[in-house]
Amino acid sequence: MLFFLVVAGWSAGGFAGVLQGPPAGLRDRVPPPSIEAVGAVLIEVGSGQVLMAQDATARVAPASLAKLVTLRLAWQAMERSELSADEEVIVSERAWRTPGSRMFIEVGERVRVADLLRGIAIVSGNDACVALAEHLAGSEETFVALMNREADRLGLADTHFTDSHGIAGTAFTTAADVALLAYRYLLDHPEALALHSARRFTYSLSPRGEPITQFNRNGLLGKYEGADGLKTGFTREAGYHLVATAERDGMRLVAVVLGAAGETAREEQAIRLLDYGFGSFELWDVYGQLQPNLTARVWQGRDNRVGLEPGSTTLVAVPRRYAGGVEVVVHPREHLFAPVARGRHVADALVTLEGMELKRIPLLAAADVRRAGWWKVLVDYLRFGLLRALGRL
Fold it and tell me: What is the pTM of this model?
């Protein structure tokens, strides 16, 4: 059921942004750990595969995980040159009064966007979120509408935000949606890890005139090999959240733990997921196995064949002790008749292991094929009909 939810609900971002859920039979071959949390998901970023999911569609308040969308919108604005890191933001009284975790900005203060991003990513400053939201959209309410529109665009089918920082109790999300959000965030904004991996942030001054240094609440940084992000969250209603990411030997995992019992518990559960991923899987590139089959027959076209190109990565997370049995088989989606437009989804490459489908790679037409003249069209029409009648198509 999760595989259907993942593919159907998360396909809005295009082939390169689709997560593919764990196939039936994977749990029996590589048993995952049981996670003590409201919901949990483990993904491998390079392949776009979900390696483990537990109660992935259970709703929970997002808490500070909502800040990933706030940061995402800021990164997008900078990419469009609508915002710059050195730009200054004037802090409103509303931003200053925002409760919860803070970076301690003051009313009327001019704060660089770069510092606000650090304050959000490293120390989870709610005041920084409101200041940035007001600067980008004019008001936090307008910004929240942009957050929900972005969630819809990404295919977060069971997520709704009510503020820029996540402390309001009426917002909701799921482990499946958070996994997709984290996946797209890392794919689209890898530069953000430079902030999320920082272990401390010093910005404001105490009443005594001394700098205030706060520490990243992600306890895996400096503790777990390869850990370099991503975000924590907590409210009384939601419990303790952690989206932890780590990279080893070119394989990047993201562990989503929602609603754990405490700070130590969320870290322990995330480590269990990451240990399972790194210990049980390895990353393969199946392009070499796929390459001989990267053409397709075209009927009634000026060209008889069209080249194919993968519509998503050819990396595949493969269970370690079964790695030798991986096969790649190309399945055409239909008989191709010209005209064929470049980019058309014409076939799928199924990556299987002992009959179990690990991943489905879309194959796209690599060029346009125009319709042939009337004589070639007639010949192909007759030839296609004959071969079909003989059962050879």
Answer: 0.91
Q: Quote the percentage of the chain above a pLDDT of 70.
A: 95
Q: Which fold has domain 287-389?
A: Peptidoglycan synthesis regulatory factor (PBP3), Domain 2 (2.60.410)
How many other C-beta atoms can be found within 10 angstroms of the C-beta atom of residue 208?
5
* DSSP, res 19: -
Distance CA 214, CA 201 (A): 5
DSSP structure string for 77-108: HHHTTS--TT-EEEPPHHHHH--SS-----TT
Secondary structure of residue 55 in the 3-state scheme: coil
Residues with Cβ within 8 Å of 176's Cβ and at least 6 positions away in sequence, in order, are 2, 5, 6, 9, 39, 41, 53, 56, 57, 158
Domain ranges of the chain: 2-281, 287-389
Side-chain half-sphere of 291: how many Cα atoms within 13 Å?
Answer: 5
In the DSSP assignment, the letter for residue 315 is E
Report pLDDT digits (tens) over 185-240.
999 999 999 999 999 999 987 667 788 999 999 999 999 999 999 999 999 999 99
Which entry of 47, 64, 101, 312 is annotated as an active-site residue? 64
- 231 labelled catalytic: no
Taking the C-alpha atoms of residue 133 and residue 147, their distance in angstroms, rounded to an integer, is: 10
May I ask the CATH class of domain 2-281? Answer: alpha beta
**Residue 37 and residue 266 in contact, taking contact as beta carbons nearer than 8 Å:** yes
Q: Is 139 a catalytic residue?
A: no
The answer to whether residue 64 is catalytic is yes
For residues 2 and 76, which has the higher predicted lDDT (pLDDT)? 76
Catalytic residue among 124, 164, 204, 312: 124
